[in-house]
C-alpha cells in the first residue's frame, strides 16, 4: 500500500503535523516560554533552581575578553564540553575528554591546544554556530560519564532517551540510535533507528528505520529487543518535573544516563517531532485524552503523575 | 472556545465582504470573470449645424430617455466655447443645452460625442408599462378611407394572431398598394402631417393595436451623417416590440438607440436659424472589464474611484504583479499544510516564481538549477574558511553574478539570448537560495537539500503557471476584493488540524493491521 486513509489514522489516534502545531503546540505552549528551552543556558539555570538533575555548569563565556581567562579557568577541569547556548543541529559542540600536559584531548584522541579552545569559544561568541549568525554565549559544562548499559546499541556516540511530556504527564518515550547511514547522527530521517520504549517498564517495544520495522541494529547487529532502560521511574520523574519548570504543555525531554549521577536532562524541546508514534507503533491522541480526563479530576505531584503514566500507558 | 468563535466570525465577515463586492461589481458595474469577454461600445457623435444671428445663442438637443441599460464610458465635448447644461422636460424628456453669449455671425457647428455600451438589454432595462389607453388618431378616417381601413383591418385580423402579427401584416399590406386596392385607396388619403408612417400608426390604432412612433439610431451598422430613423413600436401585451416600418419586421431593440419617444422636438434654437442635426455612430469592441472601469469612473462609483484603477497606469502594472503574490501565498499554504510538500523557506517559492516571470519557466528552471549547483559547489569551498554570515552571503552574491555573467556570455556566443533577460531581483533570490541550501546541507544533509529544493521548485512552478494564467490575472486585478476571500481561506487552513496528504504516506505502516 502506497497510502493509508485519514480515517484509518484517526482510528489509530495518530497526531499529524497540523494537529501538533494547531492543537498541541498552539494551545499548550506559550511563545514567551520558548526561550526557556531554546536557550540552553536558561534551561540549565532553571533546572538547577528547580532541583532537576542536569550536567553541571562549569562556566559561561559571554564576552570576547573572557577567552583570555579560559586557560586559568579550566585549569582544574579534565573533561568538559563547550557548546553554544543557542546552537542548532548539534553544531559547535567541542568535547574534551582529558589532558595531555599542555594539550586537551578530543574523543578521537587528537590534541587541541589552548589557542584552539580560545578560537572555538570566540567562534561561538561571534555567532558562527547559531541560526541567523546572531551573537551567542558559550557554555562550558561537565562531560557526561555515559553509562555502558547502551553499549552496542548505537553505531557511534551514546543514545539519549526522548520522553514526550503532556501537561506534566510522560505520555510516550523512544530512543534514537545512530547508524553508519545516519553518519553518527541521531536523526531519524537521516537513517537513525528509532526504538519505542514502554512507559510502564522502560523496555524496548519495537524498532523502526525509515519507517520500516526491524529487529537488530543494522551496523552492530545487536538485538534491539534487549534494550532496557535502568532506573526508568527516575527518567520519567525528571521529564515530568520539567513541566513545572518550563510551563510548556507539550514538551520533549532528552535524558541521558550518567554512570554515577544517574539520569540527567540534556536538552528540552518545545516542538518535539511525531516520529515517536511510528517507533512506538501507537498514536498520541488516546494518551493525551486520558491525561486531559485525569487533569479534570485533580492536581498531582510529578511522582504521582509518573505513577499514573506507568499504570495507564504500559503496553 | 472564544478564539474559535472570533475566527469563524472573522472568516464569515471577510467572505461576505469579498464575495458581496464581487457580485456587486459583476451585476451593477458590469465586470466579468472572463478576461476575454468583450463588450460592444458605440461611439455616437452628433453634429449640429446652424446659422448664428450673432450674439447669445441657446441650442437644446433631445437626448435618449431610455438609458437605464446604457453605460456611458466617455463623454467628449469638442466645442469648448459653449456652456453645457442639462434639463429635464415636463414629460421626462432629457435635453442637453449649449449656450454661448458671444457667438459670431455665420455658420456654426457643435459636436458632441458619447461612448456607450449596453449593460442590460433594452427591454429588460426599460420599465414595460402597459399603455393606459389606445393612442389618439392623428387624423380620423372618413368615408371611403374608413371603409378601406376597415377592409384592410378585417383582412389582417386573425383570431390566432397576436397584436404584433396583425400589426406587421397591416404594415405589409400598406407597403404593397399595387397588390391591394384598399391600401392604395388609403395611401391616396390627404394627410396634414405624419405621412406614410402616421398613416400606418393611425391604421394600427384603428385596429385597436397599441402603438407609438419612435425615432432613433440603428447602432448595428456604422452610420455617417444620418438623420434619426423612425420606427413603430407595438405593445404585445407584455412589452414593446420594435417594427421596421419599411420591411414590417421585428427588429432587435438592443441595436436601436431610441432618441425620441414622446414626439418631443429634437432640436431647438434661440438666436440662430437653419439648425439641423446629424448623427454618426461607430461600433468597436473593447474588453468588458475595461468598459466597466470606464463606466464606473463616469458614474463616480466609489468602488472604482478609490481603487487601483485610479492610479497611474505604470503603477497599476506593478500592482498587477503585487496582487498575484497573495495568490502565491495561498498556493504555498495549500502545498505545505494540506499536501505536505517541504519547501526551503516559506515564501522563497513565490520569489522564485516571480523571477521565473522574467525568464519563462523552462529557461528559468535551467538557469536556476545551473546557477544554484555551481553556487553550492563554490559555497562548499568557502565553508572551510569559517566566514561569518553576512560576508558569506555577500561572497555568494559575487559568485552568482560571476556565474550568471559567464552563462550569459557563453550562451550569447553560442547564439542564445535567454541569459540576457534576467534583472537584479532574481540575483538576490538565487543568492539567498544558495545560502539556505548550504545551511540545510550542513545541518540536515544532502538528501534534505534535494527534497526541499525540488519541493521549492515544484511549488514555484505551480505558482508561476497560475500567475501566468490570464484568468487568475484578471481575477486578482479586476476583483482585488477577492483578497479578502483569499485571506478567509488562508485563515481556515490555518486552523485545519487534519492530516496532510504526505502523512498518509509517512504513517502508512501505522495504518496496517
In short:
The complex is a heterodimer of chains A (315) and B (513). Chain A has ten helices and 14 strands. With 315 residues, chain A is an alpha+beta fold.
Description:
- The complex is a heterodimer of chains A (315) and B (513).
- Chain A is α+β, with helices and mostly antiparallel strands.
- Chain A has two domains: 6-37 and 148-312, ATP-grasp fold, B domain (D-amino Acid Aminotransferase, Chain A, domain 1), CATH 3.30.470; 56-142, ATP-grasp fold, A domain (Dna Ligase, domain 1, 2-Layer Sandwich), CATH 3.30.1490.
- Helix content of chain A is 30%, strand content 23%.
- Chain A is built from ten helices and 14 strands.
- In chain A, strand 11 (204-209) and strand 12 (212-214) form a beta hairpin.
- Chain A starts with 5 loop residues before the first helix and ends with a helix.
- The model of chain A has no long low-confidence stretch (mean pLDDT 89).
- Chain B is of the alpha+beta class and 513 residues long.
- Chain B folds into three domains: 38-124 and 266-290, Immunoglobulin-like, CATH 2.60.40; 126-260, no CATH class; 318-480, no CATH class.
- Chain B is 50% helix and 22% strand.
- Chain B has helices spanning 2-29, 122-125, 143-156, 163-175, 181-187, 195-206, 288-299, 302-305, 313-322, 324-339, 348-359, 361-383, 389-413, 424-444, 446-468, 470-478, 482-494, 501-506, 508-511; strands spanning 38-52, 55-63, 70-77, 83-88, 94-103, 106-118, 211-218, 223-226, 229-235, 240-244, 249-251, 256-260, 267-270, 272-287.
- Chain B has a five-stranded antiparallel sheet with strand order 3-6-1-14-8. Chain B has a five-stranded antiparallel sheet with strand order 11-10-9-7-12.
- In chain B, strand 4 (83-88) and strand 5 form a beta hairpin.
- Chain B starts with a helix and ends with a helix.
- The chains are: A alpha+beta (315), B alpha+beta (513).
- The interface between A and B is medium-sized, with 37 and 29 residues.
Amino acid at each position: 500500500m502506497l497510502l493509508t486513509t485519514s480515517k484509518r489514522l484517526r482510528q489509530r489516534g495518530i497526531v499529524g503535523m497540523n494537529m501538533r502545531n494547531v492543537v498541541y503546540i498552539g494551545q499548550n505552549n506559550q511563545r514567551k516560554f520558548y526561550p526557556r528551552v531554546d536557550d540552553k543556558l536558561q534551561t540549565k539555570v532553571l533546572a538547577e533552581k528547580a532541583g532537576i538533575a542536569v550536567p553541571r555548569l562549569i562556566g559561561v563565556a559571554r564576552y570576547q575578553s573572557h577567552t583570555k581567562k579560559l586557560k586559568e579557568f579550566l585549569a582544574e577541569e579534565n573533561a568538559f564540553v563547550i557548546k553554544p547556548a543557542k546552537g542548532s543541529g548539534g553544531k559547535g559542540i567541542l568535547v574534551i575528554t582529558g589532558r595531555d600536559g599542555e594539550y586537551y584531548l578530543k574523543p578521537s584522541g587528537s590534541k587541541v591546544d589552548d589557542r584552539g579552545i580560545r578560537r572555538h569559544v570566540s567562534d561561538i561568541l561571534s555567532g558562527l554556530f547559531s541560526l541567523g549568525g546572531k551573537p551567542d554565549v558559550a557554555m562550558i559544562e561537565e562531560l557526561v560519564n555515559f553509562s555502558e548499559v547502551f553499549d552496542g546499541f548505537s553505531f557511534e556516540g551514546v543514545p539519549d532517551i526522548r520522553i514526550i511530556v503532556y501537561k506534566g504527564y510522560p505520555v510516550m518515550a523512544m530512543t534514537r540510535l545512530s547508524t553508519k547511514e545516519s553518519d553518527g547522527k541521531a536523526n531519524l530521517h537521516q537513517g537513525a533507528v528509532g526504538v519505542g520504549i514502554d512507559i510502564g517498564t522502560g523496555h524496548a517495544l519495537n524498532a523502526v528505520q525509515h519507517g520500516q520495522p526491524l529487529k537488530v541494529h543494522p551496523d552492530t547487529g545487536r538485538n534491539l529487543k534487549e534494550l532496557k532502560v535502568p532506573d526508568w521511574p527516575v527518567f520519567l520523574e525528571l521529564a515530568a518535573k520539567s513541566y513545572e519548570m518550563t510551563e510548556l504543555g507539550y514538551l520533549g525531554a532528552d535524558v541521558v544516563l550518567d554512570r554515577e549521577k544517574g539520569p540527567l536532562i540534556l536538552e528540552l524541546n518545545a516542538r518535539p517531532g511525531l516520529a515517536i508514534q511510528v517507533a512506538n507503533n501507537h498514536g498520541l491522541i488516546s494518551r493525551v485524552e486520558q491525561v486531559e480526563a485525569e487533569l479534570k479530576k485533580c492536581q498531582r505531584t510529578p511522582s504521582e503523575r509518573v505513577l499514573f503514566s506507568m499504570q495507564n500507558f504500559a503496553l | 472556545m472564544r478564539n474559535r468563535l472570533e475566527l469563524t466570525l472573522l472568516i464569515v465577515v471577510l467572505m461576505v465582504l469579498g464575495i458581496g463586492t464581487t457580485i456587486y461589481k459583476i451585476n451593477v458595474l458590469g465586470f466579468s470573470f472572463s478576461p476575454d469577454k468583450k463588450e460592444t461600445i458605440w461611439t455616437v457623435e452628433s453634429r449640429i449645424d446652424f446659422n448664428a444671428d450673432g450674439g447669445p445663442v441657446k441650442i437644446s438637443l433631445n437626448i435618449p430617455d431610455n438609458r437605464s441599460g446604457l453605460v456611458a464610458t466617455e463623454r467628449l465635448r469638442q466645442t469648448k466655447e459653449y456652456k453645457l447644461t442639462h434639463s429635464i422636460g415636463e414629460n421626462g424628456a432629457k435635453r442637453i443645452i449649449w449656450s454661448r453669449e458671444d457667438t459670431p455671425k455665420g455658420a456654426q457647428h457643435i459636436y458632441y460625442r458619447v461612448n456607450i455600451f449596453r449593460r442590460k438589454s433594452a427591454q429588460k432595462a426599460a420599465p414595460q408599462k402597459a399603455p393606459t389607453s389606445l393612442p389618439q388618431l392623428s387624423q380620423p378616417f372618413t368615408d371611403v378611407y374608413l371603409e378601406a381601413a376597415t377592409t384592410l383591418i378585417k383582412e389582417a385580423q386573425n383570431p390566432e394572431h397576436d397584436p404584433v402579427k396583425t400589426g406587421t401584416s397591416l404594415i405589409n399590406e400598406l407597403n404593397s398598394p399595387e397588390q391591394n386596392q384598399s391600401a392604395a385607396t388609403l395611401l391616396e388619403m390627404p394627410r396634414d402631417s405624419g405621412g406614410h408612417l402616421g398613416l400606418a400608426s393611425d391604421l394600427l390604432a384603428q385596429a385597436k393595436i397599441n402603438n407609438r412612433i419612435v425615432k432613433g439610431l440603428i447602432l448595428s451598422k456604422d452610420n455617417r451623417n444620418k438623420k434619426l430613423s423612425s420606427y413603430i413600436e407595438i405593445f404585445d401585451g407584455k412589452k414593446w416590440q420594435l417594427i421596421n416600418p419599411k420591411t414590417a419586421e421585428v427588429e432587435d431593440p438592443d441595436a436601436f438607440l431610441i432618441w425620441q419617444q414622446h414626439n418631443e422636438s429634437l432640436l431647438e434654437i434661440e438666436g440662430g436659424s437653419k439648425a439641423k442635426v446629424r448623427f454618426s455612430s461607430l461600433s468597436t469592441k473593447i474588453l468588458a472589464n475595461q468598459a466597466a472601469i470606464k463606466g464606473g469612473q463616469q458614474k463616480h462609483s466609489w468602488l472604482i474611484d478609490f481603487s487601483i484603477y485610479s492610479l497611474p497606469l505604470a503603477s497599476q502594472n506593478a500592482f498587477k504583479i503585487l496582487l498575484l503574490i497573495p495568490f502565491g501565498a495561498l498556493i504555498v499554504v495549500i502545498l505545505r499544510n494540506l499536501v505536505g510538500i517541504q519547501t526551503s523557506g516559506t515564501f522563497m517559492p513565490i520569489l522564485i516564481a516571480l523571477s521565473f516571470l522574467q525568464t519563462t519557466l523552462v529557461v528559468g528552471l535551467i538557469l536556476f538549477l545551473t546557477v544554484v549547483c555551481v553556487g553550492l559547489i563554490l559555497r562548499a569551498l568557502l565553508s572551510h574558511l569559517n566566514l561569518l554570515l553576512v560576508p558569506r552571503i555577500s561572497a555568494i552574491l559575487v559568485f552568482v553574478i560571476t556565474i550568471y555573467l559567464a552563462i550569459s556570455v557563453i550562451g550569447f556566443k553560442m547564439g542564445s539570448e535567454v541569459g540576457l533577460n534576467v534583472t537584479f531581483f532574481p540575483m538576490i533570490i538565487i543568492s539567498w537560495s544558495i545560502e539556505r541550501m548550504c545551511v540545510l546541507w550542513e545541518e540536515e544533509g544532502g538528501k534534505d537539500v534535494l527534497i526541499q529544493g525540488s519541493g521549492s521548485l515544484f511549488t514555484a512552478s505551480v505558482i508561476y503557471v497560475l500567475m501566468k494564467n490570464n484568468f487568475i490575472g484578471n481575477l486578482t486585478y479586476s476583483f482585488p476584493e477577492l483578497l479578502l476571500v483569499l485571506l478567509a481561506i488562508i485563515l481556515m487552513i490555518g486552523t485545519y488540524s487534519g492530516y496532510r496528504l504526505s502523512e498518509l504516506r509517512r504513517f502508512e505502516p501505522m495504518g496496517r493491521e
